[in-house]
Amino acid sequence: ETVTYTDKASGVVFNAWPVGDLTIGLALPASALTTANATEFIGLLTCTSPKGLGTGWCGVSLGGGMNENLLVVAYPSAGQVLTSFRWATDYTFPTVYSGSAKLTQISSATNATHYSVIFRCQNCLAWSQGEVQGAAPTTEGYLLLGWAHATASPSNGACPNSFRVGQHDSQGIFAGQLNSAAVNPSYPAWAAKATSTVAGSC
Questions:
Q1: What is the pTM of this model?
Q2: d(CA 202, CA 198)
Q3: Do residues 99 and 125 touch, judged by C-beta distance below 8 A?
Q4: Which residues contact 55 (CB under 8 A, 6 or more apart)?
Q5: What does the DSSP 8-state code read for residue 93?
Q6: Over the stretch 5-40, which tens digit does the pLDDT of each residue have?
Q7: Where in this chain does the record put each Cellobiose dehydrogenase-like cytochrome domain (predicted)?
Q8: Distance between CA atoms of 71 and 18, rounded to whole angstroms?
């Protein structure tokens, strides 16, 4: 089920989907459902930390399945929420994505039960890795999204480009229906709030 969620601090309005142990949200440019497939979005990830403050990781596939689709991973570390773009060609640990995607944060938070990040994701709804290309066309009115969640923290977690994780504890794929709340003329102003590049300690 698609719900509408408004972040009080930033004012960003999302189409959001509570699935498993996380909530995924997207906000899109005003023309994304009608005349022009969006290549970027403002995203929300809120994930649970069943083992306490600063633990766990979660991820989203922007094309549904894990393989040959752009993956966005988030996890708490030292009071921040770190993110990494990843790419998989098999059901093994994904490598770092080498395409042109860019992520900047609007805000993040961690507490004893959850961690959350709101971010702008540029060049994320069309992707290219080597000879493989893909896209998530927003004018179709829905996005096929995959998700994964784990309770154990990554190793080497201080650096998003070199962290390691085991297999996730839960996962799923769903069609996120997009409605009129997903698009807003305020998108450029919201996107301008994404000024923080959180790189960790590499």
A1: 0.96
A2: 11
A3: no
A4: 49, 76, 151, 152, 153
A5: P
A6: 999 999 999 999 999 999 999 999 999 999 999 999
A7: 5-187
A8: 18
